[in-house]
Amino acid sequence: MAANPFLIAGGILSALASLLHLAVFAGGPAWYRFFGAGEGMARMAERGSPVPTLITIGIATVLAVWSAYAFSGAGLIARLPLIRTALVLISAVYLLRGLVLVPALALNFGGVTPFVLWSSLIVLVYGLAYAIGTWLAWPSLSARG
């Protein structure tokens, strides 16, 4: 099977996002604020609550698993279980999260913050990489493949 540049790109992007989440929890309250986690998360981190760390590690773990699915779909690592279903769902989650920008802009939900704008555009790129890569790889992802 030929390498799938879209799934490879999606896997790299998800891996980078996972690492960025780990950096945010290591960076502390100022990083939670800068990267848009919200004042509540930053304040919990300032108080030493484990909640922001656990949430951030959880998100980083999910993103790392998604990266592995992209690499599996691209044929770079062993085939993971439910590869087709997983790649479709991952694509959908990224695309839906990215498309949150459309109603936010149309309805002007409390003003579109720079975080909402940029994170939506970035995640939309992730979703497109996964969706296009999944579509291209679909025949090779069959249960028989």
Largest sheet: none
Radius of gyration: 17 Å
Low-confidence stretches: none
Report the helical percentage. Answer: over 70%
Describe the structure.
The radius of gyration is 17 Å and the shape is globular. The model has no long low-confidence stretch (mean pLDDT 90). The protein is 74% helix and 0% strand. It has 7 helices and no strands.
Main attributes of the structure:
globular; 145 residues; 7 helices; mainly alpha
Summarize the structure.
It is built from seven helices and no strands. With 145 residues, it is an all-alpha fold.
SSE blueprint:
Layout: H1 5-27, H2 29-34, H3 39-46, H4 51-73, H5 83-99, H6 101-107, H7 114-137
Helix pairs in contact: 1-4, 1-7, 4-5, 5-7
